[in-house]
Amino acid sequence: MQPLPLDSYLNRFSTAIRACLGLHPLVALCGILLLAGCGGGGGDNTIQIGEYSSLTGTAATFGTSTHKGATLVMQETNASGGVLGKQIKLLTEDTQSKPEEAATVVTKLITRDGVKAVVGEVASGRTLAAAPICQSNGVPMITPSSTNPKVTQVGDYIFRVCFTDDFQGDVIARFVHNSLNLKRAAILKDVKNEYSVGLAHYFAQSFKQMGGEVVVEQAYSEGDNDFKAQLTAIKAADPEIIIVPGYYNEAALIVKQGRELNIKVPFMGGDGWDSAKLLEIGGASMEGTYYANHYSTSDPRPVVQNFVKKFHEKYNETPDAIAALSYDAVSILMDAIRRAGSTDGPKLRDAIAATKDFDGVSGTITIDNNRNASKSAVVLASGPDDRQE
Question: Could you give all domains of the chain from N- to C-terminal order, each with its CATH number?
């Protein structure tokens, strides 16, 4: 259930008090404000952490997975006694998959709720809208999965636990060129999505340096559902592979429509493909496609298998990479608070920056001098039987 705005609570409680005690509205309201002043932002026995996620809108599956991963860590932390002798309270706000809403809700979390740190967002565009607010207020922020290199360049309070698009673009290029032994690629990118534009750029840059050729580039915009004109132009260029560095909704439709046009070459994307919706939308058309990702559920490491087991027990579903990254982001934050011995902004910032060889679900994570995660990537083959390459 979504929390009610403060004025809604005041109206409800004021009405209830007047009904029970026969008080004048102003007297009742004063009583409420005095009581609220005594509690003050969760009290001395809690540490409030903010989360902003796309729980509704075009990227809702990403936001839902993020929230589930964060919630699991919080519950485990509190069950084991909390941090610094205090319980963790997660305050979650919905960005509605909109950059402007991300800025609004993060401002609320910091100025109204007084959170000590912020976790979010998935999409780089929304994270870039909110990161300057965290930076200017001296509140550490960790994004689980925003891969655009610009994100952590905002300032020294901004961190990430995922790899960056320049690294991911190079991984895709190397896989296409060295593992698949393909030399002619087409690109179909979302021109309104910073993630998609950036990943397309870094792929093309690396692929060309390896001797590969980008034979054609086509564009679409988030929310489009007809890609046949672009795919027809791509087919005419005769590529050996089509790179679609976008999100799962459009990617699945693109592959499906490509197969309908009798395009038989492989399609490949990045971590934005990782969603159960990909196969739900694309179905059998997804056979013979690939995407770079942050982890694989088949990884035998105990930290991975324990996470998959706990997540499935709680939510009755297999966790995607977004959930794994969120779990890692909040776990690193909890570890940093312990090491800092404080939730003071500068001390917490320095503790996060000092994270080294953290055994995360998405890999062994070290935060580098640019506040990015130094870690590995995997390539997954998509289809009815997903497998790691």
Answer: 6-39 (no CATH), 46-162+300-372 (3.40.50.2300), 166-293 (3.40.50.2300)
> Phi and psi (nearest 5°) for 282?
-80, -30
76-121 residue pLDDT tens: 999 999 999 999 999 999 999 999 999 999 999 999 999 999 999 9
Q: What is the pTM of this model?
A: 0.81
* Cα atoms found within 13 Å of the Cα of residue 329, Cβ hemisphere only: 37
Q: How far apart are CA 54 and CA 66, in angstroms?
A: 9
The residue count for the chain: 389
Q: How far apart are CA 113 and CA 186, in angstroms?
A: 47
**Exposure on the CB side of residue 222, measured as CA atoms within 13 A:** 19
Closest residue by Cα to residue 234 from 219, 246, 217 = 217
Distance, in Å, from the CA atom of 33 to the CA atom of 31, rounded to the nearest integer, reads 5
The partner residues of 330 in beta bridges, in order of sequence, read none
pLDDT tens track for 319-330: 999 999 999 999
Q: What is the CA radius of gyration of the chain?
A: 23
- Could you write out the three-class secondary structure of 330-349? HHHHHHHHHHHCCCCHHHHH
| Residue 184 dihedral angles phi and psi, to the nearest 5° | -120, 115
| Phi and psi at residue 166, to the nearest 5° | -65, -40
- Among the listed residues 64, 17, 85, the one whose alpha carbon sits nearest the alpha carbon of residue 311: 64
φ, ψ dihedrals at 225, nearest 5° = -135, 5
